[in-house]
User: Which sequence fits this backbone?
C-alpha cells in the first residue's frame, strides 16, 4: 500500500508497486493496492482495505473488480491506525458478486432478512462529463439491465451538482476560489477541497508528533503530501465538519432508503507506469471530484466493473444513503446477471461511427433521426429521436428535433410537449419557440403562439420566420 495510506497510485518506496493484472503497464491505484491486486490476480477470493478518500474505490476501478466503501462508522475501525477518523472506513474487494455480498454482510453484521422495496436509479448526468467512455458501454448498460428486472422504477437523470449547490448552504464560502469555473465544476471542486482539507487536518492532529520525532523515510510523493498537511493552518475547521454534515443530509434527502446514484468511479484517462508513476494534476483533480461525494458525506459506495473500453477497465459506481449498505449490496447482487448480459451485448456491438471525434450512442441516434427526417420518413425519425432521449434525456436538441417530426405528422400536442421540455432545458432554443408557436397555432391557441414567436424574435431579431408568423397571428387575432 502507499505509505501511511496517503497516496493514490499504489507505489511504496520500500516495497515497490504491485503489478496490475488487468494492464501490466497500468498503475494498480491506491492506497490499498496490494489488496486490489491480490483479488484481481485471483490469488484470494476477497480482501480488505481502508478507504479514506478513495483508497478502495480507486484500485477496484483500475484493476477491474468490485470495491465497497461502507457508510462511515458502520464497520468498526478498532485496530486501524487511522489516517483521518472522519473519513476512514474498512472496505472490501472481490471478483465474485456472491462472495462480495456475503463478506459485506459479515462486515456489517447484517441479518439475511430481505426487505422488499422498489429501487430508484438516478444518473448524475453532470458527473459523466468527466468520462468519455461511450454511454453505450456505461449508462446504456445500466439502463437496459434495469429494464430487464422487476422491482425497479424507470431511471431518472439529474444535475447533482446543482442539487448540492442548492442544498448545502455552507458550500458558497468554499466556492469563491472557483468562480471562473462552470458552476457544477466549482461545486465539485469545493467539495473535493473540503474533503482533502479535512483529511490533512486530522492527519496532522493524529501523526505530527510521531513524524517530527521519528522522521520516517518516505517516498517523494508521500513526503510532499505529509509536508503539505503538517505545514497547513486550519482556521475554518468547524466549517469543514459542517459541510460534511450538510452534504450527508442533502444526499440522504435525495436518496432516502430506496435510491441509488450512478456516477463514473474514476475519470477516463489513466496514468501509466512509464510516465514516472505519477498522475497528472488534472487527473487527480477530476479523480477527487468524483470520489468526494461518498468520501465527504460518509455515504456507502460500490465500484462495479463493466468490461473494458480500448483495453482499459470500465468502472461505474452506485452510491446509496448513509446506513443503506445492506440495500446497496443486495441491489448489486440482484443486478449482476442482468448486468453481465448487457456488458456482453455492449462489447459485441460494432464500434459506433465517429462523426465528430467524440460521438456517443445518443448522438448517433440523433444523426439517424436527422437522416430519416430529411428523407421525409417522419415516423422513423420520431423513433430514432425517442431512442436518443432514452439514453440522454437532458439534451434539448433531441426534444426539439422530435417536435419537428411530430409537426410533420400533425401530432401537435406531442410537438408542444417536446418543445416545453426543450425550452426547460435550454431557454435560448429559438427553434423550440418557433416549433411550439407553430404547434399552438395549429391548436388554435393564438395568443400563446404569438408569445412564442415574439420570444423567438427577442432572441433572434432578424429571424424572418418568426416575424412573418407574428404578423400572421396578429391578423388572425384581429
Assistant:
Amino acid at each position: 500500500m502507499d505509505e501511511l495510506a496517503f497516496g493514490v497510485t499504489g507505489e511504496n518506496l520500500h516495497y515497490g508497486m504491485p503489478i496490475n493484472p488487468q494492464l501490466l503497464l497500468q498503475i494498480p491505484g491506491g492506497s490499498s493496492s496490494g489488496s486490489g491486486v491480490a483479488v484481481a490476480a485471483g490469488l484470494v477470493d476477497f480482501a480488505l482495505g481502508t478507504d479514506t478518500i478513495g483508497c478502495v474505490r480507486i484500485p477496484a476501478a483500475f484493476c477491474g473488480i468490485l470495491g465497497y466503501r461502507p457508510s462511515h462508522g458502520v464497520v468498526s475501525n478498532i485496530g486501524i491506525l487511522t489516517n483521518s477518523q472522519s473519513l476512514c472506513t474498512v472496505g472490501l474487494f472481490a471478483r465474485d458478486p456472491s462472495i462480495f455480498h456475503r463478506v459485506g454482510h459479515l462486515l456489517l453484521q447484517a441479518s439475511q432478512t430481505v426487505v422488499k422495496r422498489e429501487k430508484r436509479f438516478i444518473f448524475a448526468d453532470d458527473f459523466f462529463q468527466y468520462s468519455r467512455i461511450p454511454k453505450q458501454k456505461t449508462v446504456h448498460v445500466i439502463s437496459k439491465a434495469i429494464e430487464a428486472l422487476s422491482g425497479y422504477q424507470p431511471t431518472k437523470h439529474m444535475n447533482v451538482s446543482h442539487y448540492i449547490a442548492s442544498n448545502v448552504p455552507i458550500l458558497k464560502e468554499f466556492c469563491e476560489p472557483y468562480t471562473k469555473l462552470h458552476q457544477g465544476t466549482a461545486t465539485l471542486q469545493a467539495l473535493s477541497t473540503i474533503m482533502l482539507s479535512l483529511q490533512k487536518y486530522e492527519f496532522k492532529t493524529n501523526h505530527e508528533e510521531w513524524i517530527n520525532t521519528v522522521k520516517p523515510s518516505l517516498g517523494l510523493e508521500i513526503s510532499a503530501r505529509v509536508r503539505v498537511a503538517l505545514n497547513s493552518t486550519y482556521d475554518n475547521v468547524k466549517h469543514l465538519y459542517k459541510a460534511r454534515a450538510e452534504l450527508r443530509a442533502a444526499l440522504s434527502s435525495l436518496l432516502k432508503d430506496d435510491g441509488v446514484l450512478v456516477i463514473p468511479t474514476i475519470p477516463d484517462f489513466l496514468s501509466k507506469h512509464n510516465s514516472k508513476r505519477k498522475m497528472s494534476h488534472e487527473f487527480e483533480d477530476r479523480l477527487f471530484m468524483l470520489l468526494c461525494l461518498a468520501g465527504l458525506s460518509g455515504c456507502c459506495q460500490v465500484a462495479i466493473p463493466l468490461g473494458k473500453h480500448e483495453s482499459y477497465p470500465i468502472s461505474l459506481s452506485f452510491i446509496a444513503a448513509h446506513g443503506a449498505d445492506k440495500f446497496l449490496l443486495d441491489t448489486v447482487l440482484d443486478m449482476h446477471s442482468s448486468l453481465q448480459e448487457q456488458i456482453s451485448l455492449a462489447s459485441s456491438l460494432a464500434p459506433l461511427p465517429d462523426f465528430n471525434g467524440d460521438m456517443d450512442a445518443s448522438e448517433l441516434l440523433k444523426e439517424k433521426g436527422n437522416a430519416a427526417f430529411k428523407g421525409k420518413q417522419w415516423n422513423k425519425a420520431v423513433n430514432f429521436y425517442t431512442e436518443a432521449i432514452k439514453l440522454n434525456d437532458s439534451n434539448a436538441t433531441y426534444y426539439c428535433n422530435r417536435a419537428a417530426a411530430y409537426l410533420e405528422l400533425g401530432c401537435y400536442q406531442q410537438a408542444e410537449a417536446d418543445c416545453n421540455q426543450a425550452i426547460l432545458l435550454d431557454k435560448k432554443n429559438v427553434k423550440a419557440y418557433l416549433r411550439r408557436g407553430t404547434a399552438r397555432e395549429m391548436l388554435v391557441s393564438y395568443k400563446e403562439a404569438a408569445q412564442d414567436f415574439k420570444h423567438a424574435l427577442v432572441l433572434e431579431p432578424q429571424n424572418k420566420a418568426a416575424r412573418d408568423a407574428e404578423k400572421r397571428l396578429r391578423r388572425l387575432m384581429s
Summary: The chain is about 50% helix and 10% strand. The longest helix spans residues 183-214.
